[in-house]
Amino acid sequence: MHLPDEAAAHALGAKLAAVVQPGDVIALSGPLGAGKTSIARGVLAALGLAGEAPSPSFAIVQPYDPPEVRLSVLHVDLYRIEEPDEALELGLDEADDALLLVEWPERLGDDPWPDALWLTLAFDEAGGRRLTARVPDAWESRWPLI
């Protein structure tokens, strides 16, 4: 999938928001500046967040709960995590009733969430971003997005 600009990344996030459920994980992978946060912001805006969501780079986990958004969301940025064990303190394994939007998921190892929709962004030589998706069984009826 090609995302020509930030508006397209936000639009993809809005489409994701229409199909997410509590307990879902969306893993957002790619280099710095590829658009991971833009997709997450699109999801949060479509779930009802007023204003722009801050990047959770320093907080690591930014929680959102109703009525601020339609369902509980943990926006996670693992960029500063150096060892997978460091993430144990974050309590992500106990967030069964929240949507997890996880940037830099590869910091936790090969497959920390086997049922996650794994979106990988790369810079496109023609401009914009190229997105590839790893779609687990839990997402097959919801992907591709319409």
Automatic annotation (TrEMBL):
Keywords: ATP-binding, Cytoplasm, Magnesium, Metal-binding, Nucleotide-binding, tRNA processing. It is found in: Cytoplasm. Its main location: cytoplasm. Gene3D superfamilies: P-loop containing nucleotide triphosphate hydrolases. InterPro entries: P-loop_NTPase, T6A_TsaE. It holds the Pfam family TsaE. Coiled coil: none annotated. It comes from the Bacteria. Belongs to the TsaE family. This is tRNA threonylcarbamoyladenosine biosynthesis protein TsaE. It comes from Sphingomonas hankookensis.
